[in-house]
Specification:
Layout: H1 16-23, H2 27-35, H3 42-55, H4 61-68, E1 73-78, H5 84-99, E2 103-108, H6 113-125, E3 130-133, H7 141-148, E4 152-156, E5 167-171, H8 173-186, E6 192-196, H9 202-217, H10 222-225, E7 226-230, H11 236-241, H12 243-247, E8 257-260, H13 263-275, E9 285-290, E10 303-306, H14 309-324, E11 333-336, E12 339-341
Parallel strand pairs: 1-2, 1-3, 3-4, 4-5, 5-11, 6-7, 6-8, 8-9, 9-10
Antiparallel strand pairs: 10-12
Helix pairs in contact: 1-2, 1-3, 5-14, 8-9
Length: about 350
């Protein structure tokens, strides 16, 4: 007596041949309906589309891309997938990609050059149509390598990419740092701590440069007025961890204002202040950067520099789509302007 088995039979996948037989047309006609519908008469196209729906046919995009040499996927490589900033950017990219029939594959470099290199190689191996990449540092050699593999790319949040090299979308981060610095100075804060990460990340470096410019404009020496603290990573944990270091910076003066390179750091820093019984902004004024949704939900609301996150993502995907479609347009740089959002985490300096 044969042994019984609990294995579930493998389902039989419907193919183009079955769809063609059901519609009474050739497989070539079905292929045209899927890939070049403008070549097929409307009555025939309707028959094929009905057969596809009735048989629940799902096309094999991987096989199609191998035959056509064109993938329907693009990669998105971000610095930190846990940062909500990238969620909104990714939504803009995905919405734009969906309109052109492209799917987005999300990857995370975790601010690591090695992981960036590994992920870009993976995208090249998968023969994606293109990639939107936020580089971990100023070295663009990985992107140029990707280009040599025939993969289009657009640099995200990098304003220094030459138009002779590739396309990029970014926010004027220097202007954002300048706005934050002017705001704190207007409140009477002539000494500020900047919480950022490695200056290899262009966005951090430019925000700090903007802050320094604000102090120079005010006739103050930025080297004397700004306490710079570099964090291992740009996240809330790091912001909370350095509270004591910020409060006791060795200057002999109490820190009363902090400008954080992003909202994540600011939120962690504010949490750390609360644990020590210090009030925001009564004891310390705090400014963030990004304008995450949570910035307006916490108490006090976080004063921050807003970036057009969704628009940034859509613009990046528009530039990439143009390259994928074989546009003759030269590489392009698009730069967005940030704006200061004043909430309740900052107040006038009180000695």
């Amino acid at each position: 007596m044969p042994k019984s088995t609990n294995r579930t039979p493998r389902s039989s996948r419907t193919g183009i041949t079955q769809v063609a037989a059901h519609a009474g047309v050739s497989p070539a006609t079905v292929s045209n309906v899927l890939n070049r519908p403008q070549l097929v008469a409307e009555t025939t196209r309707t028959k094929v589309e009905s057969a596809i729906a009735e048989l629940d046919y799902v096309r094999n995009s991987f096989g199609s891309s191998l035959r056509s040499g064109r993938s329907t996927s693009v990669g998105l490589l971000v610095l930190d997938v846990t940062n909500p900033f990238f969620t909104e950017v990714a939504r803009g990219i995905e919405d734009e990609a969906a309109e052109t029939g492209l799917a987005v594959v999300l990857l995370n470099s975790a601010e690591s050059p090695e992981r960036q290199r590994r992920n870009l190689r993976l995208l090249a191996e998968q023969q994606v149509a293109g990639a939107v990449v936020m580089p971990v540092d100023d070295d663009l050699s990985d992107l140029l390598w990707l280009q040599r593999q025939g993969v289009h790319w657009v640099a995200l949040d990098r304003g220094d990419v030459s138009e002779n090299v590739g396309s990029s979308v970014s926010v004027d981060n220097r202007a954002g740092g300048l706005a934050a610095g002017r705001h704190l100075l207007a409140l009477g804060h002539e000494r500020v701590t900047f919480l950022g990460g490695a200056f290899a990340i262009e966005q951090v470096r430019l925000r700090y440069e903007g802050l320094r410019t604000a102090f120079t404009e005010a006739g103050l020496d930025p080297d004397e007025s700004i306490n710079l603290i570099s964090l291992a990573q740009l996240n809330a944990h790091q912001g909370e961890r350095v509270v004591d270091q910020v409060l006791l910076d060795g200057s002999g003066k109490r820190t009363r204002a902090v400008f954080c390179a992003n909202d994540q750091i600011a939120l962690g820093f504010m949490k750390g202040l609360g644990k020590r019984g210090l009030r925001v902004p009564g004891d310390v004024s705090v400014v963030g950067y990004d304008d995450l949704a949570v910035a307006d939900l916490i108490h006090p609301g976080l004063t921050t520099v807003a970036q057009p996150k969704y628009e940034l993502g859509r613009a990046a995907m528009q530039l990439l789509s143009a390259q994928v479609e074989g546009s003759d347009q030269p590489y392009e740089r698009r730069i967005f302007q940030p704006r200061l959002i004043m909430r309740d985490s900052t107040c006038a300096f009180r000695d």
